[in-house]
Each structure stands twice: as structure tokens, then as C-alpha cells.
Design brief:
Among the domains are: 237-353; 367-488, no CATH class. The chain is α/β, with parallel strands linked by helices and 488 residues long. A 14-stranded parallel beta sheet has the order 1-2-3-4-5-6-7-9-13-14-15-16-17-18, covered by helices on one side. It is built from 13 helices and 18 strands. It starts with a helix and ends in a 6-residue tail after the last strand. Strand 10 and strand 11 (300-301) form a beta hairpin. Helix 5 (112-123) runs parallel beside helix 6, helix 11 (380-390) packs parallel to helix 12 and helix 12 runs parallel beside helix 13.
């Protein structure tokens, strides 16, 4: 066979092979189109929902708390946009998904201004909640972001700024005279303090950009004096001051004549500073909480000494939370000199601190208006004395409706000074039944709770739980157990 004939034969074979492969490819294409048509004809239940219902479901997908920025493709709302075209359209068209704008460490976002602009546009006219953690003034898109921020300030109902002093100063100067917050109701100002900080909040002119906020009523200021920010103090009804000196606390109370709720974390007084401070009285405050806060530099504010320098004759709720230096003498002095119509008292020691050694002193027992008493990690001596009188003395908390012992030592723990669950039950059964049924002149106790901090299920003989089962059947709210479940 000649060379030409051999080549023609090879070409013919390849052409035939190509034809066969083309037939197979056409057949596969036909099968693919048929399968795609079948797939497209399937009505997924989730896609048959009305867009309004899908929007409502999307809103419930928003995380309760974010660990990182909202610019996170693994969380709603951005995650919802990556599922399909229909969901993307619904997500973008649901303003409620875009009302919270939380940014941490702004330096890592190269398109901060563009992101904010898109976010706020999707929120349309809904009130905005904005939280910014990190330096703004050093950002390369600072001016562009401030333009977007200013254009949307009129929609902001909640604003939290956690920045360095320099950032607050530059932002204030940048926006002065053109800034107003007609919808702003809640403001948090947290000053970032670190070892390299060159400016002290006390040395900076007061930040004035929040003054024009006619609806503002709730304010938190952390690691800065109240005077760090110019605010419409007359209209503030709820205030939190974190990492304050006692003097700062007194200044804050004096600034707000219409204050109703107040929370402080305060440092201890140094030496004889108390002798140099004047007592402050506030006639309207109804709620006070004293708690512990630790600064970035490790300084802990947990003092309750401010009680010795304030008089709150209208106070209805007092909560002393997570303190490690509780002194009942300070509480007694406050109760005796303020004579408040207190309805709720909560005392909770810091985890790891000594148990609460409350004494049933005359100022405490004299709280005839008290409706709810909540004691965490009670000491054995307190439990013994409390129930020794509770079931028989009608002058002891005569209006009490709710009694709770929380964070109680479990049976597996060996705590020499703390009362455990079993000790409380043994002391409480007869007095509570007697108070509920037969003590004249007393309100009928409605709730009794004993909650162990342990994780092991509690087990008691049925006869020990019987009195509490009877009380529960009579209509009392009785809860005895761990945080997971009650055994009654």
C-alpha cells in the first residue's frame, strides 16, 4: 500500500471515531437538557413561600451577637445573598436586614466608605444601629466614610463608638456644625486606653457633636469623665458609667436631674478622699446597679463605696453585682439614710470571692416595701438566721413575694462557709409553708427558687421535696435544681 493510501485510511478512521464521539456527545447533551428540565420543574417548598414570609425568616437569621464585622460572608445577611438569585433579591429588598452596621478594626477594611454606603442604602429609611470599634482618623478613606456617616446620621437611633481619644477629637472637628441626630436614642462612648496612648480624655475639649439629639435618653460612657461629651443631660433617663472614680459617679448623678436608671463600675476611694466629697442626693432615681468592670490594662472597678455618698429616696431596685469587696455596713448606711421604698434587692458576689455574709440588720429588715429578694451564693449563717425568723416574724419583709437563692453550692462541693442546696431546703420548708398559710399581716409568697451552680442533677429523698411539691401544687412558683432543670 502506498503512503498516500495509508494516510487516507488513517484519516477515514479518525473521521469515523469523531463521528461516533459526536453522536455520544449529542446524546449526552440531550440527556442533560432532559434532566435539567426535570430539575427545573421541581418546586422547592422554600421557594414557594411569599417573599414577605421569606423576608421575615431572614430577619430571624441575623446573629444575636457578632464576633467580627458585619462584613462576614458566613453570617446573615451576606450569607443569604450567596444561596441563589431569588434569595439575593429578597435579602437586598429587606431593609430590616441592613439596619445594624457593626465594624471592628476598621483598618482591615479597604472599602469602608463603599461598604457603609451600600449597607445604609439597603436599610432605606429604617432607623440605624451603628457600632464602630477601632481607629477612624487613621483610615485612608476617612473623609469618604465621614461623608457617608454624616449623610445617614439622621437615621441613627443607636450609636456605639469605641475609639481612641484622638479619633473622637478628629471626628468631632470634622463634623462640627453640620451634625445632628434627630432619631438618636441610645449612645455608647467607649474610649480605647492603652499604654501607648498619648492623650488623656480629661485633657481634651469636650466632644460636642452629640448635643443636638432631642430623643437621646440612654447613655454609656466608659473610661472617660462625664464631661468628656457635651450632651443634653436634662433629658437623660438611663446612664452607665464604667471604670469611674467615686467622684466621677457623683458628678454624673448631679448632671442628670431626670435620671431614673443608673449603673456604675467604680474604683475604690483612695485614703481619706471620702472626707473631701460632698454627699449627693437624687430625688428621682429608681434603679441603681453597682457592678465590676475590668479595663483593657487590667484595672478592675468593683467598689460599692459610692453608696456612702449618695441619697436616693425614690430608689425601687438595687443590684450589687459581681463585687469582691462587699461591705454590709455601706449598704446599711445607705438604706438608713436614704430610706428608699425598695422593692427589689439583688446581691451577687464576684465568682471566686467569699460568699455573701449578709446580716439581718435593722436597716435591711426594715425594708417593709421589699417584694423581691435575690441572694447569690448565700452564707450558711445568713440562711440559718433568715429562716429562723422568716416564718414567724410578720415585720420581716412583710410584702415579700419572690425569694431566690442563686448560684448555690452543689452537693458535690465542699464549701465550709456557703450554704448548699440541701441546707437551704432543710431550713426553708417549714418557714415558707407557715409564712404562706398562717402569718397574719404578710403578703403570700408567690415564688421560691433555689438554683445550684453545679451541673450534676440534684437528687433528694421524696420526703424532703414533698413540702415544696405541695407548695407548687397550691400555685406557688417553685424551682429547685440546676440551671437546666428543676426537680420539683
Amino acid at each position: 500500500m502506498s503512503i498516500a493510501a495509508a494516510l487516507r485510511a488513517q484519516i477515514s478512521d479518525l473521521s469515523s471515531a469523531i463521528s461516533r464521539q459526536q453522536e455520544l456527545l449529542d446524546d449526552m447533551q440531550t440527556r442533560l437538557e432532559h434532566l435539567q428540565n426535570q430539575l427545573d420543574s421541581i418546586a422547592y417548598p422554600v421557594l414557594t413561600l411569599p417573599p414577605e414570609m421569606t423576608s421575615e425568616i431572614f430577619i430571624h437569621c441575623l446573629p444575636a451577637k457578632r464576633d467580627i464585622d458585619v462584613v462576614n460572608p458566613e453570617e446573615a445577611p451576606l450569607l443569604l445573598m450567596h444561596v441563589c438569585r431569588a434569595w439575593r433579591h429578597i435579602a437586598i429588598s429587606t431593609p430590616a436586614l441592613w439596619t445594624a452596621f457593626d465594624i471592628c478594626q476598621t483598618a482591615g477594611l479597604h472599602c469602608l466608605a463603599e461598604i457603609a454606603q451600600a449597607w445604609f442604602e439597603r436599610a432605606r429609611k429604617c432607623p440605624l444601629s451603628v457600632s464602630i470599634y477601632g481607629s477612624l482618623s487613621a483610615h485612608n478613606a476617612f473623609d469618604a466614610f465621614m461623608k457617608t456617616f454624616r449623610q445617614n446620621s439622621r437615621q441613627m437611633a443607636s450609636l456605639e463608638l469605641h475609639m481612641h481619644v484622638e479619633d473622637f477629637r478628629v471626628v468631632d472637628l470634622h463634623l462640627f456644625e453640620v451634625f445632628d441626630f434627630p432619631l438618636l436614642q441610645k449612645l455608647s462612648v467607649r474610649v480605647l486606653i492603652d499604654e501607648d496612648s498619648e492623650e488623656d480624655p480629661a485633657d481634651v475639649n469636650a466632644i460636642s457633636m452629640f448635643y443636638n439629639a432631642p430623643l437621646l435618653h440612654e447613655v454609656l460612657i466608659s473610661e472617660a469623665l462625664p464631661s468628656f461629651v457635651v450632651l443634653p443631660w436634662q433629658q437623660i433617663t438611663k446612664f452607665t458609667g464604667e471604670l469611674y472614680s467615686v467622684e466621677d459617679c457623683l458628678e454624673a448623678i448631679s448632671l442628670m436631674p431626670n435620671l431614673l436608671e443608673c449603673t456604675f463600675s467604680a474604683f475604690e476611694l483612695e485614703n481619706d478622699d471620702a472626707d473631701e466629697l460632698a454627699v449627693v442626693s437624687h430625688p428621682n432615681m429608681q434603679y441603681l446597679a453597682l457592678l465590676t468592670t475590668t479595663s483593657i490594662l487590667g484595672k478592675r472597678a468593683s467598689s460599692v463605696e459610692v453608696l456612702t455618698l449618695i441619697r436616693l429616696p425614690a430608689l425601687r431596685t438595687l443590684e450589687i453585682l459581681d463585687t469582691d469587696d462587699f461591705d454590709e455596713e455601706e449598704l446599711d448606711a445607705f438604706l438608713e439614710l436614704s430610706s428608699p421604698p425598695l422593692r427589689k434587692l439583688t446581691v451577687r458576689p464576684l465568682e471566686g470571692a467569699n460568699s455573701i455574709q449578709l446580716q439581718l440588720s435593722p436597716p435591711l429588715v426594715g425594708l417593709t416595701s421589699l417584694i423581691e429578694l435575690e441572694v447569690w451564693r448565700p452564707a450558711s449563717v445568713f440562711v440559718d438566721v433568715f429562716f429562723e425568723f422568716f416564718g414567724w416574724d410578720s415585720s420581716m419583709f412583710p410584702q415579700l413575694l419572690k425569694l431566690s437563692f442563686l448560684g448555690v453550692a452543689g452537693l458535690e462541693e465542699d464549701m465550709s462557709y456557703e450554704a448548699d442546696v440541701y441546707e437551704i431546703l432543710c431550713n426553708a420548708a417549714e418557714p415558707i409553708a407557715k409564712r404562706r398559710d398562717t402569718v397574719a399581716g404578710c403578703a403570700q409568697l408567690q415564688s421560691f427558687r433555689v438554683v445550684s451552680r453545679g451541673t450534676f442533677d440534684l437528687r433528694f429523698p421524696p420526703e424532703d421535696l414533698l413540702p415544696f411539691s405541695v407548695l407548687k401544687e397550691s400555685g406557688m412558683d417553685v424551682y429547685i435544681g440546676t440551671e437546666r432543670r428543676s426537680i420539683v
